[in-house]
Every structure is written in structure tokens, then in C-alpha cells.
Write a structure and sequence with these properties.
Layout lengths: L1 H19 L8 E8 L4 E2 L4 E3 L3 E8 L3 E5 L9 E3 L4 E7 L4 E9 L2 E13 L2
Parallel strand pairs: 1-4, 3-9
Antiparallel strand pairs: 1-2, 4-7, 5-6, 5-8, 8-9
The chain binds copper (II) ion (CU).
The site of copper (II) ion has 4 residues, from strand 8.
């Protein structure tokens, strides 16, 4: 009985991980729309799949600099301006999870506002 329960738990866990994969994983490109405030990114956990051509459209409500730790080669630190949209286009070659950080002009110390995930294919 215990064995059956363990198996069920394992199946549930796998289903959970699969659900977190973006539905657009098989498509060559992915466009994500995000809203940025001084405290948070929304949604906070943008995710794509490896080798997709990614476009991040960031509607900013704050002045500052945005960057993705560990993805600096593909996405250099970029200025954001309150009321303007920032468009970042890059290829998601590296898999993993990368903190998205905002250095607001009003509070230059970095604040982690989200987590960018690149799933394995
Ligand atoms: Cu930083």
C-alpha cells in the first residue's frame, strides 16, 4: 500500500512539472508581456524553452535599470523608463533559472523582482 502511495505521489509531481512548462514550448519563438513596478514584476516567473527566439515586452512603471543575472551576455543591463515599454529580443540558449533584478533610480541597490526560467527541451 505504501508503495502505491509513493508511486502516486511521484506521478502527481511529474504532472506538476509538466504543467509548469510553457504551452508554447514547441514553437520557434515566444513573446511575453510583463509589467514592472519598483517592487515586483508581473507575472513574476516568466518562462520559455531552450533555443526559442524570446521577446520580452516590459511595461515599466519605474525608472531604473533591469537585468537578468546569468543572462547578461544575451540580455545586457537595460534602462527602463516609467510609462514606456522596453523590448528585449534574444535567443534563450542557456537553460536554468535566472533572477531578474531591478536597480531603481530612487533606490540603486538591486531588488530581485522575478525569476526567469529557460526549460530544457
Ligand atoms: Cu543586479
Amino acid at each position: 500500500m505504501r508503495r502505491v502511495l509513493t508511486l502516486l505521489a511521484a506521478v502527481a509531481l511529474t504532472a506538476c512539472v509538466n504543467q509548469s512548462r510553457p504551452e508554447t514550448c514547441d514553437e520557434p519563438s515566444a513573446t511575453l508581456e510583463l509589467t514592472l513596478t519598483a517592487q515586483a514584476l508581473s507575472p513574476t516567473d516568466p518562462a520559455v524553452c531552450q533555443n526559442q527566439e524570446v521577446t520580452l515586452v516590459v511595461h515599466s512603471e519605474v525608472d531604473g535599470t533591469l537585468h537578468i543575472h546569468g543572462y547578461d551576455e544575451a540580455v545586457p543591463a537595460t534602462e527602463v523608463t516609467d510609462g514606456e515599454d522596453l523590448r528585449l529580443e534574444f535567443t534563450a540558449t542557456r537553460t536554468g533559472q535566472f533572477p531578474i533584478e531591478l536597480h531603481a533610480d530612487a533606490a540603486p541597490q538591486g531588488v530581485a523582482v522575478g525569476l526567469f526560467t529557460v526549460h530544457d527541451r
